[in-house]
Amino acid sequence: MKTISLAMIVKNEEAVLARCLQCVTKIADEIIIVDTGSDDETCAIAQRFPVKLYHYDWQDDFAAARNYAFSLATMDYILWLDGDDVISELDQQKLLDWKHSEIQPDMVMMKYHIGLDAQGQPLFSYYRERLLKRSMQFQWVGAIHEAITPQGEIQYSEIAITHRKEKANDPNRNLRIFEKLLDQGNVLSPREQYYYARELYYHERYEQAIHQFDVFLKGQQGWVENCIDACRLKGRCHQLLKQNEQAMSALFESFHYDVPRAELLCDIGFLFYEQNAYHQAIYWYTRALDCKMQEKNGGFVEPDAYAFLPYLQLSVCYDRIQDHPKALYYHEQAKKLKPNHPLIKQNDAYFQSLSLQ
Question: Using CA atoms, how far apart are residues 80 and 72, in angstroms rounded to an integer?
């Protein structure tokens, strides 16, 4: 049987830490908690569990902190979690089954569910390097949005970790770290450049974000999934600035990197929808239904874009062009997927008012 060290870095996680640790007490053979400066009950809560608690002077560098936590691990594999992560009972059992299996990959990629809908289905998901063979001496890189470069024998697992944030962290932390790096004369790596542009977008600094996305895309060294997402977010920035032509160009730019993703096609459909160009919107939403999720590429995935959202929007578009039978058809397809969704109930009432049901 393989053994597992859980290595976590935490700060002010009193609201969620116990919930996280309860998920792993049957899985981890060793739990390492590295506190980076909590001033709440985080450390006291950690000590209610069989943990090894360490303190680390925060340096505005997530990779450095995670590497320190990893250096303390002694088991065959290292699992990392954030304080507001949880593992469902089903996924706990899957992880235990993996632990008792004969396979011994160097790296296990697991799904990371960032948001869930009312039925508990993921709204946003992607693969992360989650279990690492300690003997490989993997190292985290990146002061912010840190990562480990995939290498060795890699297993893609259906085991999922779910992120359940209960409170907002410092909203300016990531941007502050990036701007500190730049002020110190550091040159951002392609990955850092991409995430810096994303932070500018989150902070509604859209013109600056567009410029930084262009810097990233013109560098021609970025990971293809980041390039695709950069085009998408650049398009969203233009859209928010009421620059629809530039928004459309940015979305189509993503086609240079790989086959179209449903998320991008839905965005194109929505641009046409906003301009009352319903026939064009219908075309692109229909194309989104033809796409297959590229989960194992490692990029960000919004599952709703591959079925529920196109069905919903096709229903609306056909209704706007007075093709009510097709509108009802697509409504029914969406309803099969999420019968209790508020928009489905709202549309149910609408179609009943038309005497189509």
Answer: 13
